[in-house]
Design brief:
Helix content: over 70%
CATH topology: Arp2/3 complex 21 kDa subunit ARPC3
Number of domains: 1
CATH architecture: Orthogonal Bundle
Largest sheet: none
Distance between the termini: 25 Å
Number of strands: 0
Shape: elongated
CATH class: Mainly Alpha
Number of helices: 7
């Protein structure tokens, strides 16, 4: 009886990982191949940080960190940059937000939205950091671009939340 239960648990964990991988891959396709043609005011949304944040909030630090690692790699690939900027940012944000969700934060929609906003703002700042301090581009257009990109990205928090939330595993007490 215990062997059947363990096998069922392993199978459901495998399906959960497979669904997360499929979600990250699907969002990557949308971010890199579809949304560049659907610019709103010249801005393209960042969708992979939203998936990473949702995974961290609803599934914890380990799943958030692993999701952040793969989402960051795909994000770096989609921007065609040789840096590992998003890989580092999304991995650490997944680990930090997941740890906070495991310890002090509730696994709720407002926490998810605020965490997404924080990660998107930090990602936008990280993108403009070299331009601001190394190339000395004026800050006003950089902040305007970061604001509009963040707002455009936040539009997709709800649709992505639906898919991340549907894949949430049963937690004790829920």
């Amino acid at each position: 009886m215990m062997q059947v239960r363990d096998l069922t648990k392993k199978r459901s964990r495998f399906i959960e990982i497979l669904l997360h991988a499929l979600l990250i891959l699907t969002v990557y396709v949308f971010q890199s191949m579809i949304f560049p043609y659907l610019r709103l005011g010249g801005f393209v949304p960042l969708l992979l940080p939203i998936v990473c944040t949702g995974t961290a909030v609803y599934h914890g630090s380990i799943a958030g960190g692993v999701s952040g690692l793969f989402a960051g790699i795909f994000c770096d690939i989609s921007f065609n940059e040789p840096t590992v900027l998003f890989t580092v940012i999304l991995t650490f944000s997944g680990l930090i937000i997941g740890t906070l969700a495991d310890t002090v934060l509730t696994r709720s929609f407002p926490v998810y939205v605020l965490s997404c906003a924080a990660v998107l703002i930090f990602s936008a700042f990280a993108q403009m950091f070299p331009l601001m301090f190394l190339v000395e581009v004026p800050t006003r257009p950089l902040f305007t671009t970061a604001l509009w990109q963040t707002l455009y990205s936040l539009i997709f928090v709800l649709p992505i939340w639906f898919f991340v939330r549907q894949s949430q595993r049963e937690l004790p007490g829920t």
